[in-house]
Amino acid sequence: MKALAGAMDGGVAMADGSAPLLGDAEFRFLRDFVREHCGISLGDHKRQLVQGRLARRLRALRLRHFGAYCDLLRQDPQSELGDLASAISTNVTAFFREAHHYDLLAEELLPRWLQQKRRSGDRLRIWSAGCATGEEPYALAMVLAEALERHDATGVDAKILATDLSPQALETARNGVYPLERLAGISDGRRRRWMLRGSGEYEGLACVHPRLRELVAVQPLNLLHEWPMRGPFDAIFCRNVVIYFDQPTKQRLFRRYAGLLPAGGHLFLGHSESLHGVNDDFELIGRTVYRKRG
């Protein structure tokens, strides 16, 4: 009983070798740390989830208890921040998820933007903020590459910035290699055009076309920290990211997005996200599509 009580209060490893328990003090520290460094709000109901997911990090780091993990975060927070954020958040992504956003780009926004850029000589920039494993920016790149060809605008300086906090997700995004079953959202025509199917030891995998790699720059970024880029961006995709953030963090983030978008610039959110009661810099113009007010 004494060993069990110690495990519950101090987050120590269990004597029988089972998974360590997350103590009260360790959970409070982790909750405060995650809110400060990641903007993610963890309620008490998330305690079991945090314990289960971070137990894998303890095994990977060969740490016996949560107290040691908290000490690691205190001593060197940046080294573990990406892995911690990956562990406690659920990155659900897919090629052409919420297809209406891509349709709006292809049919209305990109033709207009490219015509303007050709006349002015300005560059075209799209930011995929919280790109996870890369399906979103590469889907954007397919639409952009097709628009550049269709509208005779291959000379326009057009790029997509893809950022995320998770080192594992960024590695996948940089590699651009996906199991065939992950390509379900891509039409047959686009799959033939933009995905290179592997063979031999790469059987069952597909790699993105080199042209898409040319259009996408994958970089690590914590949305709560300083941003090296200054914009402006024509569009920012931040979909299914702010669902984890508390209200003050959302408000700060959307103000910063507004600062990187010109009047008329577009912000795309996830299907369960909204700016209602959060920010007045944007007006809703479509399903989870916002335009910066002039």
TrEMBL record:
<feature type="domain" description="CheR-type methyltransferase">
    <location>
        <begin position="22"/>
        <end position="294"/>
    </location>
</feature>
<feature type="binding site">
    <location>
        <begin position="222"/>
        <end position="223"/>
    </location>
    <ligand>
        <name>S-adenosyl-L-methionine</name>
    </ligand>
</feature>
<dbReference type="InterPro" id="IPR036804">
    <property type="entry name" value="CheR_N_sf"/>
</dbReference>
<dbReference type="Pfam" id="PF03705">
    <property type="entry name" value="CheR_N"/>
</dbReference>
<feature type="binding site">
    <location>
        <begin position="239"/>
        <end position="240"/>
    </location>
    <ligand>
        <name>S-adenosyl-L-methionine</name>
    </ligand>
</feature>
<dbReference type="InterPro" id="IPR022642">
    <property type="entry name" value="CheR_C"/>
</dbReference>
<feature type="binding site">
    <location>
        <position position="97"/>
    </location>
    <ligand>
        <name>S-adenosyl-L-methionine</name>
    </ligand>
</feature>
<keyword id="KW-0808">Transferase</keyword>
<dbReference type="GO" id="GO:0008983">
    <property type="term" value="F:protein-glutamate O-methyltransferase activity"/>
</dbReference>
<feature type="binding site">
    <location>
        <position position="91"/>
    </location>
    <ligand>
        <name>S-adenosyl-L-methionine</name>
    </ligand>
</feature>
<keyword id="KW-0489">Methyltransferase</keyword>
<dbReference type="InterPro" id="IPR022641">
    <property type="entry name" value="CheR_N"/>
</dbReference>
<dbReference type="InterPro" id="IPR026024">
    <property type="entry name" value="Chemotaxis_MeTrfase_CheR"/>
</dbReference>
<dbReference type="InterPro" id="IPR029063">
    <property type="entry name" value="SAM-dependent_MTases_sf"/>
</dbReference>
<feature type="binding site">
    <location>
        <position position="164"/>
    </location>
    <ligand>
        <name>S-adenosyl-L-methionine</name>
    </ligand>
</feature>
<feature type="binding site">
    <location>
        <position position="136"/>
    </location>
    <ligand>
        <name>S-adenosyl-L-methionine</name>
    </ligand>
</feature>
<keyword id="KW-0949">S-adenosyl-L-methionine</keyword>
<comment type="function">
    <text>Methylation of the membrane-bound methyl-accepting chemotaxis proteins (MCP) to form gamma-glutamyl methyl ester residues in MCP.</text>
</comment>
<protein>
    <recommendedName>
        <fullName>Chemotaxis protein methyltransferase</fullName>
        <ecNumber>2.1.1.80</ecNumber>
    </recommendedName>
</protein>
<feature type="binding site">
    <location>
        <position position="93"/>
    </location>
    <ligand>
        <name>S-adenosyl-L-methionine</name>
    </ligand>
</feature>
<dbReference type="GO" id="GO:0032259">
    <property type="term" value="P:methylation"/>
</dbReference>
<dbReference type="InterPro" id="IPR050903">
    <property type="entry name" value="Bact_Chemotaxis_MeTrfase"/>
</dbReference>
<dbReference type="InterPro" id="IPR000780">
    <property type="entry name" value="CheR_MeTrfase"/>
</dbReference>
<dbReference type="Pfam" id="PF01739">
    <property type="entry name" value="CheR"/>
</dbReference>
